[in-house]
Design a protein that fits this description.
The protein has strands at 5-8, 13-16, 30-35, 41-46. It has 66 residues and is mainly beta. It has one domain (1-49). The strands form two sheets. The chain has a two-stranded antiparallel ribbon with strand order 1-2. A two-stranded antiparallel sheet has the order 3-4. The termini are far apart.
């Protein structure tokens, strides 16, 4: 869901995706959906956080393996 939500079945079903930048690699938006008493839909979309510089994996052996 690159835009945070997606319709299916002639707009009778909507998928709302709540994880922006899924797995820190997709760059997708997230969304929240509000449905009022008149069944009107309002979406709040959230952009992914800016990508941070990736750190080098630690080559240190965790203590529980020693």
């Amino acid at each position: 869901m690159m835009e945070g939500y997606s319709y299916a079945h002639k707009k009778k079903c909507v998928t709302v995706f709540s994880a922006p930048n899924y797995c820190y690699r997709c760059g997708n938006q997230a969304a929240a959906l509000e449905v009022n008493d008149n069944l009107e839909l309002y979406y709040q979309k959230y952009d992914p956080s800016p990508k941070e510089k990736e750190s080098e994996p630690s080559k240190r052996v965790p203590e529980y393996f020693l």
